[in-house]
Here is the input.
Amino acid sequence: MSVKIRLQRHGKKGKPFYWVVAADARSKRDGKYLEKIGTYNPNTNPATIDLNIDSAVQWLHNGAQPTDTARAILSYTGALLKHHLDGGIRKGALTQEQADAKLATWLESKTGTVDAKKDGLSKVQADAKAKAFKAEQDVNAKRIATAAQAEADAIAAAAPAPEVEAEEAPAAEETNEETQA
Here is the structure.
């Protein structure tokens, strides 16, 4: 029986969520599997990967072949490196302590790059929110200024109108007096 490490799709339409599983190569994509190794969520940025590295390495030792995407996930998490280092231990090229030290340094550097990406993304989001807030404040300030100007214009238009009528009224009285005399 040929075993593959592959992705099994879950989630809804347009929002995929995957399980990383070890399955018989002849089984359906979302069908029966031998063991669930982890999960992969590409909807987040960066993608969320939760993988049992020891289980994945054990399946690799037993001859399981990962698909292309599963290989990328295993490489990203360090499972392929651990499998490679275990091969070096079996051949006698490395000791267990040396392999563990190499894996630990690699994991630290990988964690640093992932954290840097998360920080960069959060900074970009914060900058975008600040820009949007500033633009909203500017629009509100313009709207308030326009409303105040319109109100002032309305008051100015309403105030001179009674004064003009008051001036016309005495003129009308004078013309009435002249016609009566």
About this structure: The helical segments are 53-61, 68-77, 79-91, 96-158, 160-180. The chain has five helices and five strands.
